[in-house]
Amino acid sequence: MLRYRTIPVTAFAQNCSIVWCDEAMEAAVIDPGGDLDTLLEEARRLGVALKAIWLTHAHIDHAGATAELARRLSLPIIGPHEGDRFWIDALPQQGAMFGFPPAETFTPTRWLVDGDTVRIGRCELAVRHCPGHTPGHVVFHSKDAQRAFVGDVLFVGSIGRTDFPGGNHAQLLASIRERLWPMGDETVFIPGHGPEGRFGQERRSNPFVGDRG
Ligand SMILES: [Zn+2]
Ligand SMILES: [Zn+2]
């Protein structure tokens, strides 16, 4: 069974999640934007072995500590989609743009495409490509656990910004409607910022992408 713990990191309170298979006690870190010592301490406390880094997209609050974590623990970097290559290359500049210390760039061990799966222990999650906030944004969906890690695609009562380079508002709405909603109304989503929600509730009440919007 998939379990997870969400830890807000960086000055942007980005929801980094440690996700693990409770049979194998092996874990992946989704979006290690920063605060590595906090993340490593949490993994130790949970008693899980970190095996991989999974990235939803390459904004610095999500990917800023990726290179350092990968190097320190010799972890593979899985994702995002190759559409975010320019954001990875720009990580050092994003530090200045968003008021962060400079971050190292890196090359993912594996780029992801829509329909891929990622695995941790005995748990498998589906990868959906959800461009709009960034061109290479992906989300990770566990059908068994009814959980989706959606980065900055969707928030409770809001949606991701599309005013950065490569952003596209219409594409973001299509990603949400065509790739998130089919995961089911009862699916709990863990956004990149703020509290968890359920897709059904967002369909009813989200002013940007709800069914009545
Ligand atoms: Zn972002
Ligand atoms: Zn973010």
UniProtKB/TrEMBL annotation:
Residues 195-213 have a biased composition (Basic and acidic residues). Residues 192-213 are annotated as: Disordered. It comes from Hydrogenophaga borbori. Its cofactor is Zn(2+). SMART domains: Lactamase_B (SM00849). CDD domains: YcbL-like_MBL-fold (cd07737). InterPro entries: MBL_Glyoxalase_II, Metallo-B-lactamas, RibonucZ/Hydroxyglut_hydro. This is MBL fold metallo-hydrolase. GO terms for molecular function: hydrolase activity; metal ion binding. Keywords: Hydrolase, Metal-binding, Zinc. Residues 13-193 form the Metallo-beta-lactamase domain. It holds the Pfam family Lactamase_B.
